Amino acid sequence: METMIQKMVTEDREIAKRAAEIWRSGGLVAFPTETVYGLGGNGLDPRASEKIYAAKARPSDNPLILHIADDDQLDELTTGVTEWMRAVMEAFWPGPLTMIVPKSERVPYETTGGLETVAVRMPSHPIARQLLREVKLPIAAPSANRSGRPSPTSASHVIEDMNGRIDMIIDGGDVGIGLESTIVDLTGARPMLLRPGFITPEMLQEVLGPIETDLAVFKQVSAEVKPKAPGMKYRHYAPKAEMKIVEGDREAVASYINQKLAMQQDKKIGILTTTENQMLYEGGIRISVGTRASLLDIAHNLFRVLREFDAIGVDAIFSESFPAEGEGLAVMNRLLKAAGHQVIRV
Ligand code: AMP
Ligand code: MG
Asked: How far is the CA of 182 from the centre of ligand 2 (A)?
């Protein structure tokens, strides 16, 4: 299949119409959102959902998020709009917040991975909003990477993973946030955080009252820890090389990694470091993920840096650790998954 690659820096009706036509006829279009690039298809068309799974090589029990442009569109996707849903819409939409709600009959099981619930979000990115307004359909759009690879934060990442597999890629430049949306499940007795993101637990609590956190946000999946978001059970966001997180004070971390470097001089060792610490390492392939003064900066760069290590073809990666608070919660959640929960405490 030939993939049309289309630059779209500002809103452009002609391009939006072309994307909408592809969606209406069952095709796939990748587009930028404020979190990461999404791989979109008509979320009400079971065959479009199947195409998304095929293009990503994603396991079909891992449900898709529906993207909408208007509050009203939620009505037809769920069995009834509740107070919690209204509060979330008012506080966080449009924006990087996905809610899990009971699904209506209109939503096919192919889209929800067989579940009775559906994930819905209203993105704020102006290009995403224009496309969604034009098509007037809920668009199922998981991250536009091949399953298991780090999520795409620029069109070049999408081209790497999807060229030749989908109908169109809309190049809207780099995304802003760089990590996927926060997911909150509103179908239980209490709201539950399933995936941390830019919207922090503190922000959710202000609007929804006390919330719970799914154990799988930080713990490795096991017989006791079964994630409520099926996607969280896969080794996700991962670079090709094995990655280990080294945790401790900065000198101890650097001396541990330097020791490893000295022992493996014949290997290409990647070090995921920060502006403040990169000078502490004696060798290795150091890539700074940003400054410790801004966890937002680190969130923004994380997936790009993981892809850079892939492109260089390193044999192994050591990563520094970050405080798991505020936006750092999302950073550490992705980093732990990328490392398959391998943490060395020094
Ligand atoms: P992605 O769009 O690739 O960032 O992944 C979507 C995430 O949302 C995955 O982790 C899914 O498992 C999760 N998700 C989607 N729908 C549901 C649902 N109905 N219940 C729980 N988690 C969901
Ligand atoms: Mg994804």
From this structure: 12
